[in-house]
Amino acid sequence: MKADIHPKWYPEAKVTCACGNSFVVGASVPELRVEVCYNCHPFYTGQMKFLDTAGRVDAFKAKQAGAKKHVSKGEKRKLKKEKKLQEERSRPESLAELR
Which of 8, 24, 37, 45 is the most buried (most CB within 10 A)? Predict the structure, then answer.
């Protein structure tokens, strides 16, 4: 095995949760910060808890509100044909109108 390729092992790394719970595990970093742990995770507690970090739900709703409406191919063809007809109608029909 090659020497000095493995990270340093910390057998007593402290894990701190956003809820305030902390515990000790073995890890390759001395300290970890997590958002959800066994003490506050809905799966383990049986309670539904709304977790919205950095406004992800609000950002998604804003993105959906600003999104363009999906137009089908048939509708695109109709719009293109109508635009072409409108351009033809706006053209002058005689040389007198052109002057």
Answer: 37
